[in-house]
Design goal:
2 domains, alpha/beta, 8-stranded mixed beta sheet, Rossmann fold, 18 helices
């Protein structure tokens, strides 16, 4: 058993492959072995998390997830810890393994109650063994409004004690990281959250709402290798550090041209800062030279805060020799240059208004598809992805991996679907989920910084998929390491970056 932290690569599995692995493993072992191993693993982690708990409340559902909780209750009780179990299934209605664990818990003298202990607090522990993988694996994504499990789940979700979820936080769909209808927490709880993922790591724990509700994720394979089941996705590892040779020069790391920044006089709203942020990020990420082309002809000839940036008119850019970052703050003005950028740029990162323009124009979509095999990276947030797919942001968020893969396939390029647990997809490859980043990044301009970082990584010679993965990981990691007492802005983020390659 170990805690999952950003660093090593980890294979992620969906609920269907996990179920197949569970069936195959159970067939090779004596009956009830997997549940016994699962319960023991839960008990070990529970004791480590709350060694001095006054109360340990275990909420057990009517399926095998509840059986894992009952098995854990037996171990914790035998070790002298104060355990109370709420079991929502009648013994005769439980699956065979869960019924055996219920009997073992009863024989051991575990206490049962219909309600949690009255004084659960921060020093205690709640173990969520209500649903786990059940909703995802069965395809049932809703419970009747009158179902008794709903009330117990609400108690778990608002519990003042730390909560340890068995396999998957109850109500969370293991494949998507979204909640089943009607099962999302009514309000956020401030108590710590932990999840012990069993047999496999589930994709939904690392993207969308999963990262918040899963909290600190632990993993135990229960002694069963998952190698027989292909991964659904990968949790991206920390990029390997690369030392720059002493004999290199600025030409060794490529030229990035940032095209965007609609001027104030065009729509009554200035967006020049977005392009400046992307350009500064590209510079601080190690690009050899950064050319800045603002779509405002009245722009100054120098960035006084970053004089290393070289301002250019669009007509002066040699697109066929450049890595172009296009669309940051481009507004309506970006449409006029997109045909030329799509046709000529050697390498291309498309963000923001460039994506919106392409979504609204079939001719530009064809031009984007025609760029293959030249390296191209799209960096949409969920609403921009929805426009490109002709759907809604809610539908994109409901199936983040699928949406990213569809975009990558449709436009034959690498796609970074931004958000909690950003998804990086490329044609013919399993999607990668990024493990870094936090709510500091939910502020204006951080997406422009990411676009500039991807551009710098591409210009350095990395392939498009690697460039996107490394930039996204580093972008989030800088936010994770940000000093609590230091204000966080996109410009401060851009200026704290180190060369990606």
């Amino acid at each position: 058993m170990y805690c999952i932290t950003p660093g090593a690569a980890h294979a992620l599995h969906d609920s269907a492959s996990t179920r197949r692995l569970e069936v195959a493993a159970a067939a090779l072992l004596p009956a009830h072995t997997l549940m016994q191993r699962a319960g023991l693993a839960v008990a070990r982690l529970a004791r480590a998390l709350a060694p001095h708990a006054r109360h340990i409340w275990i909420a057990c559902g009517p399926g095998n997830n509840g059986g894992d909780g009952l098995e854990a209750a037996m171990h914790l009780h035998q070790q002298g810890l104060p355990v109370v179990v709420t079991c929502l299934g009648q013994p005769e209605g439980l699956p065979d393994d869960a019924r055996r664990s219920w009997q073992r818990a009863r024989n051991a003298g575990v206490g049962f109650s219909e309600q949690p202990p009255a004084e659960l607090g921060p020093q205690d522990l709640c173990i969520d063994a209500l649903l786990g993988l059940g909703l995802s694996a069965s395809g049932r994504h809703a419970l009747p409004a009158s179902h008794p499990l709903r009330a117990t789940l609400a108690q778990v979700q608002t519990c003042a004690a730390p909560v340890l979820a068995v396999d998957v936080p109850s109500g969370l769909l293991a494949d998507s990281g979204q909640f089943a209808p009607g099962l999302a927490p009514a309000s956020g709880s401030t108590s710590p959250r932990y999840t012990l993922s069993l047999l496999t790591l589930k994709t939904g724990l690392f993207t969308a709402l999963g990262r918040d509700v899963a909290g600190s994720v632990w993993f135990d394979d229960l002694g069963c290798s998952a190698s027989a089941e292909p991964a659904t996705a990968w949790l991206h590892p920390r990029p390997a550090s690369r030392v720059r040779p002493h004999a290199s020069h600025k030409g060794s790391y490529g030229d990035v041209a940032v095209v965007g920044g609609e001027g104030l006089h065009q729509r009554g709203m200035g967006m020049g800062g977005a392009a400046l942020l992307a350009a500064r990020a590209a510079l601080h990420s190690g690009a050899g030279r950064v050319l800045l082309c603002l779509r405002d002809h009245a722009s100054p000839g120098i960035d006084m805060l970053q004089p290393e940036l070289m301002l250019r008119h669009f007509q002066a850019l040699q697109l066929k020799n450049l890595t172009v970052v296009c669309g940051c703050g481009g507004g309506e003005a970006i449409r006029a240059v997109l045909p030329q950028v799509l046709a000529q740029a050697a390498q291309l990162v498309l963000d923001a208004d460039a994506l919106n323009a392409i979504a609204a124009d079939a001719t530009l979509q064809q031009a984007l598809q025609a760029r293959h095999p030249r390296p191209t990276v799209l960096t949409p947030h969920p609403l921009e992805a929805a426009r490109l797919l002709g759907t809604t942001a809610q539908q994109v968020q409901a199936q983040r991996l699928l949406a990213a893969e569809q975009l990558a396939q449709r436009f034959a390029c690498v796609v970074v679907l931004k958000g909690s647990g950003s998804v990086i997809a490329a044609p013919g490859q399993l999607p990668h989920i990024n493990p870094t980043g936090n709510a500091r990044l939910a502020s204006a301009g951080t997406g422009d910084v990411l676009a500039g970082m991807v551009g710098a990584a591409l210009a350095s010679g990395l392939d498009a998929h690697t460039a996107a993965c490394q930039a996204v990981f580093t972008h989030g990691e800088v936010a994770d390491r940000w000093p609590a007492q230091q204000s966080f802005t996109a410009n401060a983020l851009a200026c704290q970056l180190l060369p990606l390659a």
